DNA sequence: CCGTATCCACAATGATACTG
DNA sequence: CAGTATCATTGTGGATACGG
């Protein structure tokens, strides 16, 4: 997740894409293709899996409009919105501590390298 | 992680075992085998990998005592301790919301089953 | 537009056995 | 006691192509 750089990091919300979906939906409903465009390289299969799992858990609703061309909107439920506070804590922790972690990694990797050389 | 039942759930700290290690070390240093015993079924390989990764990231220190039989102690650093607040938030969120998620799952699964039948 | 259907790659975890 | 070495398994995510 690049949304807050927790790629490097020990805290994740569910799978690889869930947190990102929450962020993209926090200001209102979005359509499938909108989400897809804003999420870097998600394949439709994986995005569908993510959204279905979140729907099953009651984090969002899926609304299908009977139009042509088809339109489907995804919207956070109250439960989905409640994740935002947790995401905020997580991002805050990461902002504060990521530099420390990166420094520790560099130090340890350098020490290992010195030992090997 | 059964420590707070986030198995079912969308928030995880790092990999499968990291959060548990933090909890086991929060009141002081522990030895390899102590950790292993308290952590259900971790194989020594996986526990070693977890501990080494955490050490590399500056979350804990590994202290080897020159005794026979060997003794090694793992202890959280300040950075490691800082994860506790995040864990607390996560567990609180889970305690509050897990029932809702489980209810949503039951409801959705039942609806699916009805549709299939 | 909004997906499904197949197949595949890889990382994470586990089982088992062995060692300084 | 505190690991290492190998191998097997699984599960998540991705590539690609196609369908209502």
From TrEMBL, chains A, B:
<keyword id="KW-0805">Transcription regulation</keyword>
<keyword id="KW-0238">DNA-binding</keyword>
<keyword id="KW-0804">Transcription</keyword>
<dbReference type="GO" id="GO:0003677">
    <property type="term" value="F:DNA binding"/>
</dbReference>
<protein>
    <submittedName>
        <fullName>Helix-turn-helix transcriptional regulator</fullName>
    </submittedName>
</protein>
<dbReference type="InterPro" id="IPR036390">
    <property type="entry name" value="WH_DNA-bd_sf"/>
</dbReference>
<dbReference type="InterPro" id="IPR036388">
    <property type="entry name" value="WH-like_DNA-bd_sf"/>
</dbReference>
<dbReference type="Pfam" id="PF01638">
    <property type="entry name" value="HxlR"/>
</dbReference>
<feature type="domain" description="HTH hxlR-type">
    <location>
        <begin position="4"/>
        <end position="102"/>
    </location>
</feature>
<dbReference type="InterPro" id="IPR002577">
    <property type="entry name" value="HTH_HxlR"/>
</dbReference>
